[in-house]
TrEMBL record:
Lineage: Eukaryota, Viridiplantae, Streptophyta, Embryophyta, Tracheophyta
Pfam families found in the cross-reference section: NFD4_C, Nodulin-like
PROSITE patterns xrefs: PROKAR_LIPOPROTEIN (PS51257)
Entry protein name: Nodulin-like domain-containing protein
InterPro entries: MFS_trans_sf, NFD4_C, Nodulin-like
UniProt GO cellular component terms: membrane
Topology term for the membrane: Multi-pass membrane protein
Listed SUPFAM superfamilies: MFS general substrate transporter
PANTHER family given in the database record: F1C9.29 PROTEIN-RELATED, UNCHARACTERIZED NODULIN-LIKE PROTEIN
Subcellular compartments: Membrane
NFD4 C-terminal domain location: 359-414
TM spans (from-to): 16-36, 79-101, 148-168, 174-198, 210-232, 238-264, 365-383, 398-419
Domain Nodulin-like: 15-262
Length: 426
């Protein structure tokens, strides 16, 4: 019984469980990508012209882009608190829009509608921040795949929500607004206490390669399945029973990644004695000692980057990892005995945590800022106006186009995370 309890505790504190829960949150968090499906009903029910609807689209994009408050609160609140704020904003913003569209609340001026759309979509920034911050801290050596997969699921959320909407078979199009107001909030509240940094290994574990391969396989299978289902439902008249079966299979594919933390928590994994030195102390230890241990480890890791021989980078990946692990262990033991004095770094290295002021003086920050500022507008323009574009071409069902662009958005982001990590390493 005690061993089972220990295994269950290992499962709850497993960083892969946090990653899978973050994937689930992201799979319903990209509500902004479904704007092309809800814009036609907003336009018709409120008698908006295209210019007024474009202003709502701009407000939606601003809500998705202004994440400074979410980032600031994530430093001052526990991550579950930031997720709760995001869920509340999503529910209030889109919930109020649904009440107006269905005639249950008085119609507000356009500027007030823009504020509601902004508030509702700004909740997405809290979901993204909490998921990415926790998982990047849990997987510091696999940031590319982690960020690519999580952002990919945010892009795929449009197709997932559309399929769920098709299964529920609401009587009117406005019910899609209700679903994106209530659905993400329910999922986030259910999972918000799982999303957090947990104790774990700072290096790449032997099981990480196989685990990421399994996750990538599920991602590709999920994208191919959704593409096939969407095309079948559009080209052939499908019964509601068959749509329900398709959606149940979709849920099964979304739940499948939970196999990874279960397998890792309930199976033994041998550890190298050198790696044991690098493991941070468990959460059961005193908070002060654990924090001091983490700081010592961070200094040791930074010292390794400064002191490691140049020829280490020329070794094969497995040998390089083993040599760096040995060097870290030697430095840690020497520093503990007082044989060497580990120098304090003046600032964080690339890939480590930065404060806002530290980031503002870095060229990398401004390069990323202007790249996003100048490069993301074209895709958002297509997403915002996809409903009107498809209607102008004679298509009544805009959901199929929203789903397809979500699926390819998903594949592009997952592929970008995968190949960026390969480029960085080699």
């Amino acid at each position: 019984m005690g061993r089972l309890k220990e295994r269950f505790q290992a499962f709850v504190n497993n960083r892969w469980l946090v990653f899978v829960a973050a994937m689930w949150i992201q799979s319903c968090a990209g509500v902004g990508y479904i704007f092309g499906s809800i814009s036609p009903v907003i336009k018709s029910s409120l008698n908006y012209n295209q210019r007024q609807l474009s202003k709502l689209g701009v407000a939606k994009d601003l809500g998705d882009s202004v994440g400074f408050l979410a980032g600031s609160l994530s430093d001052r609140l526990p991550l579950w608190g930031a997720l709760l704020v995001g869920a509340f904003q999503n529910l209030i913003g889109y919930g109020w829009v649904w009440l107006i569209v269905t005639g249950r609340a008085p119609v507000l001026p356009l500027w007030a509608m823009c504020i509601l759309i902004f508030v509702g979509n700004n909740g997405e920034t809290y979901f993204n921040t909490a998921a990415l911050v926790s998982c990047v801290q849990n997987f510091p050596k696999s940031r590319g795949p982690v960020v690519g997969i999580l952002k990919g699921f945010a892009g795929l959320s449009g197709a997932i929500l559309t399929q769920i909407y098709t299964m529920i078979n609401f009587p009117d199009q406005a019910s899609l607004i209700f679903m994106i107001a209530v659905g993400p909030a329910m999922v986030v509240i259910a999972l918000m206490f799982i999303i957090r940094p947990v104790g774990g290994h700072r290096q790449v574990r032997p099981s990480d390669g196989l685990s990421f391969t399994f996750i990538y396989s599920v991602c590709l299978l999920l994208a191919a399945y959704l593409m096939g289902v969407m095309l079948l439902e559009d080209l052939v008249s499908v019964s509601h029973t068959l749509v329900t079966i398709f959606t149940v299979i979709l849920f099964f594919l979304l739940i499948t990644p939970i196999i990874v933390p279960i397998a890792l928590s309930f199976s033994e994994e041998p550890r190298d004695p050198v790696e044991e030195v690098l493991l941070p102390k468990s959460e059961q230890q005193e908070a002060g000692k654990a924090e001091q241990s983490d700081q010592e480890h961070e200094v040791i890791f930074s010292e390794v980057e400064d002191e490691k021989p140049v020829e280490v980078d020329l070794l094969p990946a497995s040998e390089r990892q083993k040599r760096i692990a040995q060097l870290q262990a030697e430095l840690f033991q020497a520093a503990a005995k007082g044989a060497v004095r580990v120098k304090r770094k003046r600032g964080p290295h690339r890939g480590e945590d930065f404060t806002l002021m530290q980031a503002l003086i870095k060229a990398d920050f401004w390069l990323i800022f202007f790249s996003l500022l100048l490069g993301s507008g074209s895709g958002l323009t297509v997403i915002d106006n996809l409903g009107q574009m498809s209607q102008s071409l004679g298509y009544d069902n805009t959901h199929i186009f929203v789903s397809m662009i979500s699926i390819w958005n998903f594949l592009g982001r997952v592929g970008g995370g995968y190949f960026s990590e390969i480029i960085v390493r080699y």
